[in-house]
Design goal:
By secondary structure, the chain is mainly α. The protein is 64% helix and 0% strand. The chain contains seven helices and no strands. It is globular and about 55 Å long.
Length: 276
């Protein structure tokens, strides 16, 4: 399963002990850009699904599996964040936790199979970072920012889920390509801005401060919402094609990464709006 999120991605649902397809559902046609990933095939508007949902089967991923694993992963992030907040974890240690979380996320992103221990360890370190940075922003820049960011993240998740289920949002091939291209451009610009800030001092190119900072904060949240739709599509396709149960950990991992992205964008945006 590809973890559709603004930062990380990995190979698709294509494995069955090293073989493609899991023997579930028809194989994609040659020339299809999604031929190597039968569980992430955006459909053109008006076209029927590529294959009907697979019949329930022991050992296959279900929506209950995805909900349970996502709940465990996100829950661990919340618990670790609360601990960091209560302990008043320093920003230095928080940055260290963020770097560890990034490394763990990259390792999982390039692994050929899900590692629950790796994913849960990532959740702990990510939570420590989120708790410390949220405490800093809430206490020194914008009081109440953390709770507002949580509520904003929940609102975006609910809105995207409802729009996806009602097919207001349709994950087509064009939608997929646009979101990935936009996210790559966004990450590249933020990376360049960070380099200018580190080596040149100040706010870099100004993409994260003032009016531009607010604009890019909104863009970041919109991109996160789009990646949530891609995550929902891949979960739906994985269940339809009978992905193995352990793939639900990858679904949880991808959703957690996307929710963390949206939360941080909200936190940064609120800090900019209320920090003056």
């Amino acid at each position: 399963m590809r973890s559709s999120n603004p930062v990380f991605s990995r190979q698709g649902f294509t494995r069955d002990n090293g073989q493609a397809g899991f023997n579930a559902g028809p194989q994609p046609q040659a020339g299809n850009p999604y031929a190597t990933n039968p569980y992430a095939q955006p459909q053109a508007p008006g076209q029927p699904p590529a294959a009907p949902p697979a019949a329930p089967h022991a050992g296959r991923m279900t929506i209950d599996d995805v909900v349970a694993r996502t709940g465990a992963t996100v829950g661990l992030v919340v618990v670790a964040a609360a601990a960091a907040w209560i302990m008043d974890l320093s920003l230095g240690l928080a940055i260290g936790a963020a770097l560890i979380a990034m490394v763990l996320a990259l390792v999982q992103s390039f692994k050929r199979s899900a590692s629950p221990a790796l994913i849960l360890t990532y959740a702990v370190f990510e939570g420590l970072f989120l708790g410390a940075i949220s405490n800093f922003v809430d206490s020194r820049i914008a009081s109440g920012a953390a709770m507002q960011a949580v509520l904003g993240t929940m609102a975006v998740f609910t809105a995207v889920l409802v729009m996806y289920k009602t097919r207001i949002i349709r994950v087509t091939q064009r939608f997929y390509r646009f979101v990935v291209a936009a996210a790559l451009g966004f990450v590249l610009l933020m990376g360049v801005n960070m380099l200018f800030a580190v080596f040149g001092g100040g706010d870099g190119l100004g993409f994260r401060s003032g009016g531009l900072g607010i604009l890019f904060g909104v863009i970041g949240i919109v991109l996160g919402a789009c990646f949530l739709a891609l995550d929902f599509k891949q979960v739906e396709d994985g269940i339809a094609y009978g992905a193995p149960k352990e793939e639900s950990w990858l679904a949880a991992f991808g959703l957690t990464l996307t929710l963390v992205w949206i939360y941080l964008e909200f936190l940064r945006l609120i800090a900019l709006l209320q920090g003056d």
